[in-house]
């Protein structure tokens, strides 16, 4: 069974595959790296190493690429670098926080966090609350620090979506239970981000939603239909606004307007060509001298190619390729369905965003504005991506072999240094009992709600009957009074007083 098949298998097959993988005899490794990969905490160390290398590389390249622009604006070459370093420290704190958080607490907080992120996406659209910068309202300004709520929505959508799908992982779960409420909620979030406008983040949210549906076991035909509809909507949005349409036209016709629409893409290609195999050397880029716009942000991969050459680009691609292997390895080896879905979706999101960024820098895709994770300048993106890496590292410590090793006292220096708690072992029996308890509690709440509605309906009927009774009594009283008024006076006999012929 392949990695993708193991992650996307039905719940019963997933549990059997995990047991079979754990109980089967592992082949003897032929290399030292293969032997190291068979260690219980190999996945955890890989995630930490990849996150550290990409973050350090990003800080170095942001310092190099932004020094000219920072000096021209502030008189200091370190302005943007210090801001990026501050968010890197914040991301390190979030990484450690996610690493220590128990999985049950993570699942319990998933929906409140998602609801809070949706509320933030609504608030950022309100003038006076959201900050309008470069034709978009995407940021909050909190004590002089810009925070982008759409980046937070990526993490909360992945957490809540994995929780929803893992909670409904029974064999006979209907398509309605898989799609609703995940797909409508995802569409609402994407719609709020489009209103900012921010098509690049909308694409990232769509990738997360598609990954959750795929690894959650959605039928292929329905999955293809949903993805095709999303891609068609993305094309419509890309062609509906002037600057987006210009990007698509410049991609389809690279020779069109080289000093205008195609200027940025052409300068990125010149930077890559100037770097060659070995590069011009760290800090020796020519494009950063105001030749390549956004050289420290969207097009930092071009600066990497110019200063570090083809070897530097290969290193970045290799780190993300290793992250693909590590993330899917964690998803395949995890026993908890929530961690399987979450790790697979998060890996798909981060890697897809990275390769889309590198794709439009080298001219294979239209320019979308997606940043290179952990490398491009952008405080919110850096901190949130490190938080997601912490969640994935936490999932790596919950592999069955890792749990056994940690409970046996084989923590390692890194775990002992951070004083990380022992992970809880996933038990299908306890999970089924918890789901049954939750279903019973939900059924009791539903029964109470139905009883309350029935009581309210009975009281409403009684009030209506009482009003009808009062109306009948009033109508009967009015009728009797009318009859007394209309009754004729009796005729008087002749000779009586007042008699006249």
From TrEMBL:
Localization of this protein: Cell membrane
Catalytic reactions on record: [GlcNAc-(1->4)-Mur2Ac(oyl-L-Ala-gamma-D-Glu-L-Lys-D-Ala-D-Ala)](n)-di-trans,octa-cis-undecaprenyl diphosphate + beta-D-GlcNAc-(1->4)-Mur2Ac(oyl-L-Ala-gamma-D-Glu-L-Lys-D-Ala-D-Ala)-di-trans,octa-cis-undecaprenyl diphosphate = [GlcNAc-(1->4)-Mur2Ac(oyl-L-Ala-gamma-D-Glu-L-Lys-D-Ala-D-Ala)](n+1)-di-trans,octa-cis-undecaprenyl diphosphate + di-trans,octa-cis-undecaprenyl diphosphate + H(+)
GO molecular function, one term: peptidoglycan glycosyltransferase activity
Cellular component terms (Gene Ontology): cell division site; plasma membrane
Disordered: annotated segments: 1-28, 441-501
Keyword Cytoplasm: no
Annotated metabolic or biological route of this protein: Cell wall biogenesis; peptidoglycan biosynthesis
Membrane topology term: Multi-pass membrane protein
Protein EC: 2.4.99.28
Main localization (coarse): membrane
Family annotation (Pfam families): FTSW_RODA_SPOVE
GO BP: any one term: peptidoglycan biosynthetic process
Biased composition (Basic and acidic residues): 486-501
TM helices/strands, residue ranges: 41-65, 77-99, 111-133, 178-195, 201-217, 222-243, 299-326, 338-362, 374-396
Keywords: Cell cycle, Cell division, Cell membrane, Cell shape, Cell wall biogenesis/degradation, Glycosyltransferase, Membrane, Peptidoglycan synthesis, Transferase, Transmembrane, Transmembrane helix
Record-stated family: Belongs to the SEDS family. FtsW subfamily.
Purpose of the protein: Peptidoglycan polymerase that is essential for cell division.
UniProt-recorded name of the protein: Probable peptidoglycan glycosyltransferase FtsW
Chain's gene name: ftsW
């Amino acid at each position: 069974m392949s990695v993708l098949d193991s992650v996307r298998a039905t719940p019963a097959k997933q549990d059997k595959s995990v047991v079979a993988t754990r109980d089967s005899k592992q082949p003897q490794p032929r290399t030292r790296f293969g032997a190291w990969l068979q260690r219980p905490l190999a996945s955890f160390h890989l995630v930490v190493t990849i996150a550290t290398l990409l973050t350090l590389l990003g800080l170095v390249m942001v310092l190099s690429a932004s020094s000219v622009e920072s000096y021209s604006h502030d008189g200091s070459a370190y302005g943007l670098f210090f801001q990026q370093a501050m968010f890197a420290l914040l991301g390190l704190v979030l990484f450690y926080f996610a690493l220590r958080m128990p999985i049950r607490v993570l699942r319990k907080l998933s929906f409140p966090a998602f609801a809070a992120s949706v509320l933030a996406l609504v608030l950022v659209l309100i003038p006076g609350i959201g900050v309008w910068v470069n034709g978009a309202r995407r940021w909050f300004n909190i004590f002089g620090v810009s925070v982008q709520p759409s980046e937070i929505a990526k993490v909360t959508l992945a957490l809540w979506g994995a929780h929803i799908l893992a909670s409904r992982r029974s064999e006979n779960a209907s398509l309605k239970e898989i799609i609703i409420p995940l797909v409508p909620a995802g569409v609402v979030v994407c719609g709020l981000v489009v209103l900012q406008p921010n098509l690049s983040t909308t694409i990232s949210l769509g990738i997360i939603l598609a990954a959750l549906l795929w690894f959650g076991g959605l039928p292929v035909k329905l999955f293809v239909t949903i993805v095709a509809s999303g891609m068609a909507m993305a094309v419509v949005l890309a062609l509906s606004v002037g600057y987006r349409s210009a990007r698509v036209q410049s991609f389809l016709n690279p020779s069109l307007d080289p000093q205008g629409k195609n200027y940025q893409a052409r300068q990125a290609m010149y930077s890559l060509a100037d770097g060659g195999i070995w590069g011009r050397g760290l800090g020796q880029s020519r494009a950063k001298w105001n030749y390549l716009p956004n050289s420290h942000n969207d097009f930092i991969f071009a600066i990497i190619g110019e200063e570090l050459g083809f070897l530097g680009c290969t290193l970045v691609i290799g780190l993300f390729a290793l992250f693909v292997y590590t993330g899917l390895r964690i998803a395949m080896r995890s026993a908890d369905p929530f961690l399987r879905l979450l790790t697979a979706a998060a890996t798909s999101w981060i890697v897809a965003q990275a390769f889309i960024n590198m794709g439009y820098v080298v001219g294979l895709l239209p320019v979308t504005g997606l940043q290179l994770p952990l490398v491009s300048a952008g405080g919110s993106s850096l901190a949130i991506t490190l938080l997601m890496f912490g969640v994935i590292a936490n999932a790596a410590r919950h592999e069955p072999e890792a749990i056994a090793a940690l409970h046996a006292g084989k923590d390692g220096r890194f775990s002992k240094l951070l004083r990380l708690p022992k992970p809880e072992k996933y038990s299908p029996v306890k999970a089924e009992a918890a789901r049954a308890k939750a279903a019973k509690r939900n059924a009791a709440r539903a029964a109470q709600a139905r009883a309350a509605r029935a009581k309210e309906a009975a009281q409403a009927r009684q009030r209506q009957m009482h009003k009808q009774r009062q109306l009948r009594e009033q109508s009967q009283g009015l009728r009797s009074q009318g009859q007394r008024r209309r009754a004729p006076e009796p005729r008087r006999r002749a000779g009586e007083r007042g008699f006249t012929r």
